[in-house]
Write a sequence for this structure.
């Protein structure tokens, strides 16, 4: 299932253009992909095996509407050194100017309006 980022609420929540009409449910995972990865070709046959796309983020659906859903980062963080600390959702690397309400993390562009997400 393909979805698109249609709203960036803040650096914790993103809205995708799929919802219950598309059988999306709470807890479902989507990955936001940077589709500029290197194409991998078989050295003998020249057959393409696809591209090494970079995962910008893995999102978890937290609220579902008929045509859209709200997602948050599936990753969380804990306070250092405190085994009893509760987990908090990690921030998403979003384009803050669009906030409206290799595998090197340093070269991955921020999540932007129009980015595609795929059901994991």
């Amino acid at each position: 299932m393909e979805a698109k980022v249609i709203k960036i609420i803040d650096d914790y929540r993103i809205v995708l253009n799929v919802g219950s009409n598309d059988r999306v449910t709470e807890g479902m995972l989507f990955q936001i992909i940077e589709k500029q990865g290197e194409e991998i070709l078989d050295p003998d046959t020249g057959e393409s095996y696809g591209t090494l796309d970079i995962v910008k983020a893995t999102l978890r659906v937290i609220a579902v509407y008929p045509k859209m859903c709200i997602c948050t980062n599936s990753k969380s963080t804990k306070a250092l050194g405190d085994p009893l600390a509760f987990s908090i959702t990690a921030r998403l690397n979003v384009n803050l100017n669009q906030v409206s309400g290799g595998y090197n993390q340093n070269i991955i562009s921020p999540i932007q309006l129009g980015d595609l997400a795929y059901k994991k």
About this structure: DSSP finds no helices and ten strands in the chain. The chain has a mean pLDDT of 84.
